[in-house]
C-alpha cells in the first residue's frame, strides 16, 4: 500500500508493475481478419470518421485490449473515440492507472463503467490524482477506494468541473469533501444545484438540522 510523504510527489508514490499489463504483443490472433476490419467498425459506428490504415491500427488496439481482458467491440458502441485513439496513449493510460496499484480486475471494472478512461491521456489524469490528494485531502491509502467507487472522476477536468464543484459543496456547508468525493464528478449547474441544494435547504431550513450531521 502506498503512503504519502511531504517530500515525495504523489504521482511517484506507487511503483508501476508492468508485468501485469503487456506493453508489446505478438499479433498472431486466431480470429479471422474480418473480425477487426474497418468495414465492420464502420457498420457498428456509422458516424465515426475512420482514419487511413484504420483496419491495421484498430486491429492492434483490439488485440492489445483483449490481451488485458477488455472486449474492445463492446466498448466501441458506447465510446466510438476508441477507433481513432492512439494505441501508445491507451497503453500509457493503462500502465499509469494500474501502476497506482489497481488490479487488472479493478481496471476492467472501471473501464466497463467509464470507457472514456481509455482515451484520457495521462497528462489529464495526473492533475485529478493530485487534486484529490492535495486539495480534497484523500489519503494515498484511500485513493483506490475513491476511484473504484466513482471511476468517472478520472476523466473530469480539475479546473472546469472538480474544483468548482468542491467550492460549491463547501459553500453549502460540507467541509470534509473527502467523505463526499462521489459528488465531485456531478455538474454544479445540471445536477447539484437542481437536486442536491434543495435537499440541503430542506434539511437545514425546514427541519432545522445541522449540516455537520451530513459529514458524520
TrEMBL record:
Keywords: Transcription, Transcription regulation, Transcription termination, Transit peptide. InterPro entries: MTERF, MTERF_sf. SMART domains: Mterf (SM00733). It comes from the Eukaryota. One of its GO terms (molecular function) is nucleic acid binding. GO terms for biological process: DNA-templated transcription termination. PANTHER family: CGI-12 PROTEIN-RELATED, OS03G0360600 PROTEIN. Belongs to the mTERF family. This is Uncharacterized protein.
